[in-house]
Specification:
By secondary structure, the chain is of the alpha/beta class. It is 36% helix and 24% strand. Among the domains are: 148 residues, 2-Layer Sandwich (BirA Bifunctional Protein, domain 2), CATH 3.30.930; 57 residues, no CATH class. It has an eight-stranded mixed beta sheet with strand order 1-5-6-11-10-9-7-8. A hairpin with an 8-residue loop joins strand 5 and strand 6. The longest helix is centred in the middle third of the chain and has 18 residues.
């Protein structure tokens, strides 16, 4: 007899993505439920949410209930370069969402490459990000950028300079007017305002954006940045994913943590990015590691609307039975439908918002399909 299992949307996604990552040699990583709070307090800017659930253990140590997987992986692995370690995970993390005063348990699935990460490795991670999005929706966009461009444009300003931070925010917001306003208040180094404007405008499909990026990179004396971006995106040329890849120079991150390639993934059905990732060699250095690293996470809590927008069913048959129906009749009817290869949701009234291919009534022990 063939058994027919019905998965929740999160379970389907996890099963699909975990199988995908393992096909590429990524090994499952299992995170400890608790880590010392100091690990997270020193890297709060890296966290998606600053809210961390803490408690004091029996030895007096302040512990945190896992708010982030990447930090745990870095802490619990060793430098491997020139070798590469490939890890994937699906974990519940505990965070306080933006605008919320409480905490939520959120499922996250993703992968990390740590060690001697080269451009081939970066391309592989970008490809798997695109594959992940494609498994969720046919209508997706993967935005990719290279932080080296912004770093080179802003290099004349000190790293912790307030003007530098304001200009970087203008890049993230694509705010050309804001750059002009900043330049009024404080004279910028020669040519900087124009280069920042060129950086913001150097977005679009790779075929259109790369010539502008090459020109900007040549002007900055960093042609290797444009070459690296072109190289890692070359894996998409001539593939079904090519139309879904965009260069978006507004994709930025905290340069205390991130460097080089950064990216975000969007689905048409969801307003927020559902996938985020990038190279985080700077974070590795902050944690006294010499390895390079890149990874991404898929945020399953942002995919809740997919249950409503995508076609599909929660079970094949909704089997409705009237009051006082003998349990044995319901059991026999359900078992017969399952033996016929169908999944069944038996109920005395209805099934709320669940979806079914067909509805049948159980009357006098007989299953009668509705027209």
């Amino acid at each position: 007899m063939t058994e027919n299992f019905s998965f929740t949307n999160d379970e389907r996604i996890i099963f699909t993505l975990r199988a995908l990552y393992m096909k590429y040699g990524y090994q499952p990583y299992r995170m400890s439920k608790f880590e010392e709070y100091d690990l997270y307090s020193r890297n709060k800017d890296f966290l998606v949410s600053e809210g961390v659930i803490t408690f004091t253990d029996t030895s007096g140590r302040l512990m945190a209930l896992k708010p982030d997987v990447t930090l745990s992986i870095i802490k619990n692995t060793r430098d491997a370069a020139p070798d590469v370690s490939k890890l994937c995970y699906d974990e519940n993390v505990y965070r306080s969402p933006k605008g919320s005063t409480g905490y939520r348990e959120q499922m996250q699935i993703g992968l990390e490459q740590i060690g001697g990460v080269d451009l081939c490795g970066v391309s592989e991670v970008l490809w798997l990000a695109a594959e992940s999005l494609a498994s969720l929706s046919d209508d997706f966009i993967l935005d990719v950028s290279h932080l080296g461009l912004a770093s080179a444009v802003l290099a004349p300003l000190p790293p912790r300079d307030a003007t530098r931070a304001a200009l970087l925010k203008c890049v993230a917001d694509k705010n050309l007017h804001g750059i002009a306003e900043i330049a009024k208040d404080r004279p910028l180094p020669d040519g900087m305002a124009g280069r920042i404007a060129s950086l913001i405008e150097a977005s679009g499909k790779p075929a259109d954006a790369l010539p502008r990026i090459r020109a900007l990179a040549d002007d900055l004396g960093t042609p290797d940045i444009a070459a690296a971006l072109e190289t890692v995106l070359s894996v998409f040329e001539g593939t079904p994913y090519a139309a879904s890849i965009r260069i978006d120079t507004s994709v930025t991150g905290d340069m205390n943590y991130y460097n080089d390639i950064v990216f975000r993934g969007f689905l048409r059905e969801v307003a927020e990015p559902v996938l985020s990732g990038g190279q985080y060699d700077m974070l590795m250095k902050r944690m006294h590691r010499t390895d390079r690293a890149i990874g991404f996470a898929v945020y399953l809590d942002r995919l809740e609307r997919l249950d409503e927008t995508r076609p599909g069913t929660d079970a094949d048959v909704l089997l409705l039975y009237p009051p006082d129906t003998p349990p044995a009749d319901v059991h026999r009817a359900t078992a017969a439908l399952i033996a016929a290869g169908k999944s069944v949701f038996a109920a005395g009234s209805g099934a709320g918002r669940l979806r079914f291919s067909e509805v049948a009534d159980l009357i006098g022990g007989e299953v009668i399909p509705r027209a």
